[in-house]
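Hi R.,

As promised on Friday, here is the backbone we talked about, encoded as structure tokens. Could you run it through your design pipeline when you get a chance and send me back a sequence?
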């Protein structure tokens, strides 16, 4: 991984603090910076402020579901290009998430090794 990759920022959007912390630990070990949001409203405002290189998005969020967040992100010029990887306990939402513009879908419980691999593949495309 190059030093440029190590400075990339990932926004973790999940209402479960233990999942945010687990992802934070794993991603920081890989050299990524992280930012967090725990609900749909914060997700869009934090994304605007932080301008992440990639967003991990849970679908079941307080303040509006993840699909609404994804739609809003796609409508913002400075964020519309940012790859989004959906992580969710909703097993029936994978195709809808991909159709809505997500680059990948991971069911909970998350396979962290596969998730990190997908993140690195997405970020290496830039």
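Update: got your reply. Pasting your designed sequence below so it's all in one thread:
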């Amino acid at each position: 991984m190059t030093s440029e990759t190590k400075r990339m920022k990932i926004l973790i959007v999940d209402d479960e603090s233990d999942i945010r912390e687990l992802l934070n630990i794993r991603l920081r070990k890989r050299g990524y910076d992280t930012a967090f949001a725990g609900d749909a409203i914060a997700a869009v405002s934090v994304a605007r402020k932080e301008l992440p290189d990639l967003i991990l998005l849970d679908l079941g969020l307080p303040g509006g579901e993840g699909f609404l967040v994804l739609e809003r992100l796609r409508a913002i010029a400075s964020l519309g290009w940012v790859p989004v990887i959906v992580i969710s306990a909703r097993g029936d939402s994978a195709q809808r998430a991909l159709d809505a513009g997500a680059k990948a879908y991971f069911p909970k419980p998350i396979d962290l090794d596969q998730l990190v691999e997908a993140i690195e593949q997405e970020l290496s495309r830039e």
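One thing I noticed while checking it: Residues 17-29 form the longest helix (13 residues).

Thanks again,
M.
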